């Protein structure tokens, strides 16, 4: 998606070789007008798939997912990273490794909000090793729901997550796919 | 706001006397169409205030704030509950007590995204003791920005947060104000 790629080139910063800072418009300060254009693109890509619910994960997925839900006229559920007053029996859960933080966390979705009748679009801001998406895919399976696919804002295509999910037969639509990046040479996107 | 009050009466549940569960449409599953109506109401209430930025806090404030930003055509910044790769010198921070969880946490906003030129609307899903809002007010002050006010979805008006902030001269616009609630007698809203 040209608009997002241009925004990344204009405002994104590569630090320490493999960290892309896009916190001026994506995951700290957020640009809702840009999110609406991204949502329209996912709507176009997944048209006719019968999506009736969006699943994302706190925190930085919530903004884009909510605006996608507004555009696609469906509710949004976010997976939580800590248990709340719900008991485990009330929730679907999956384990998510974070390679950047070196942590392992369980994520939770209340059983009330996912069912076998649902056709789910997973939305998230970033994909690198794909652990968060894999955890959400696992939760969709546990719920017996159907997965239409995954919509990602920025995929680090030089990391394995996206290709592993595609190899597993899951449709992944990333609006910007970074082929390589470095502090010296900047950012190069995959050709369509 | 009648629409939100009706939704709370229809789908909200009072548990353990003082916990209002609205996770079917507000803070786990989210209803973006309802959020859009709420955003329009805040837009109406704060019209002419010159708001150019919305501040919220992760996680459950992000959805309503993003849709408010879309409606009010301004960027949204969310305060983070943990330090990221930014050093403290890069961030405004404030301390927030959570009475429900019995914890004390610092919240952070990058100095890049708040400035003395900004006129800020703080948005959050809930207000009880008001600690999260007070932390965000503190951050707006540290940035030297102007605070237009605070927009809250659900205020527990029987807890002191909202009135304390109003007594400090801050405009607080809560779309549903709960006067009292109990598992036995249900939910009563404040009269306008």
Would you kindly provide a written description of the structure presented here, covering whatever features stand out?
Two copies of one chain form a homodimer. By secondary structure, chain A is of the alpha/beta class. Chain A has a single domain (34-179), classed as Rossmann fold. Chain A has five helices and eleven strands. Chain A has helices at residues 2-11, 32-45, 61-72, 131-143, 161-167, and strands spanning 13-15, 19-21, 29-30, 53-57, 76-79, 91-98, 103-110, 119-127, 146-156, 172-182, 186-189. In chain A, strands 5-4-8-9-10-11 form a six-stranded mixed beta sheet, with helices on both faces. A two-stranded antiparallel ribbon of chain A has the order 1-2. Chain A has a two-stranded antiparallel ribbon with strand order 6-7. The longest helix of chain A has 14 residues, at 32-45. The A-B interface holds A 15, 19, 23-25, 28-33, 35-36, 58-60, 62-67, 69-70, 73, 75-78, 80, 85, 109-110, 112-113 and B 15, 19, 23-25, 28-33, 35-36, 58-60, 62-67, 69-70, 73-78, 80, 85, 109-110, 112-113. Strand 3 (29-30) of chain A pairs antiparallel with strand 5 (76-79) of chain B.
């Amino acid at each position: 998606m040209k608009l997002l790629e241009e925004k990344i080139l204009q405002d994104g910063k590569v630090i320490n070789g493999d960290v892309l800072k896009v916190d001026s418009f994506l995951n700290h300060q957020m640009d809702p007008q840009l999110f609406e254009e991204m949502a329209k693109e996912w709507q176009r890509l997944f048209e006719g798939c019968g999506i009736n619910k969006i699943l994302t994960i706190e925190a930085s997925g919530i903004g884009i997912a909510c605006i996608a839900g507004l555009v696609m006229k469906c509710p949004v559920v976010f997976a939580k990273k800590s248990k709340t007053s719900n008991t485990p029996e009330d929730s679907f859960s999956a384990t998510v490794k974070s390679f950047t933080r070196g942590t392992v966390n369980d994520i939770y979705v209340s059983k009330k909000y996912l069912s076998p009748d649902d056709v789910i679009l997973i939305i998230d801001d970033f994909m690198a090793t794909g652990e968060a998406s894999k955890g959400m895919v696992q939760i969709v399976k546990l719920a017996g729901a159907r997965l239409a696919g995954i919509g990602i804002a920025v995929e680090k295509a030089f990391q394995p997550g996206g290709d592993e999910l595609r190899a597993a037969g899951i449709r992944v639509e990333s609006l910007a796919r970074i082929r390589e990046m470095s502090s010296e040479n900047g950012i190069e996107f995959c050709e369509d």
